[in-house]
Amino acid sequence: ETLCLDLADWEAVEAAVGAAGPFELLVNNAAVAELQPFLEVTRSALQRSLDVNFGAVLHVSQIVARQMIAQGVPGAIVNVSSQASKRALRDHAVYCSTKSALDMLSKVMAMELGPHKIRVNTVNPTVVMTDMGRINWSDPQKSAAMINRIPLGKFAEVDDVVNSILFLLSDKSAMTTGSSLMVDGGFLVS
After folding, report:
1. Is 95 a catalytic residue?
2. Which PANTHER family match (predicted)?
């Protein structure tokens, strides 16, 4: 069942997601990247990014985790973060900051939900060739500078991220919680 929701509308999300369960697995993948130089960041870009990249993850995870706890079943939550949570990028002040906040939220969630047998991890990809990735990295000069810092020499494809998420949702990662799985082609080692 597909739900199309404005994640900033907490009441609508609470009603729709609350009625959609029960859940055992959750992937939080919604994100926006409104790229602006630090000195030009607008309040609207900041608020939208906080609402989607951080607030929506917190809220949807609360709803789903409460259901998991009420059912008494183990579960797994994967939050899609970014390499930008670990490294500053020009014009990414808000994006880097919201993704860093998401990483820490995920660690706190892992600590507090672990006793309920709910694992929480992040996947932190490099640029992924989604519609958003193509829009923000279509400039060859900009993309070349980033690709040159990736030892594997390319951006990630959607399947690279999906396969990492599937691993973290599966029993093959049964002892993994509070971790960030870098899917960055080695960007952070360069």
Report:
1. yes
2. D-ERYTHRULOSE REDUCTASE, D-ERYTHRULOSE REDUCTASE-RELATED
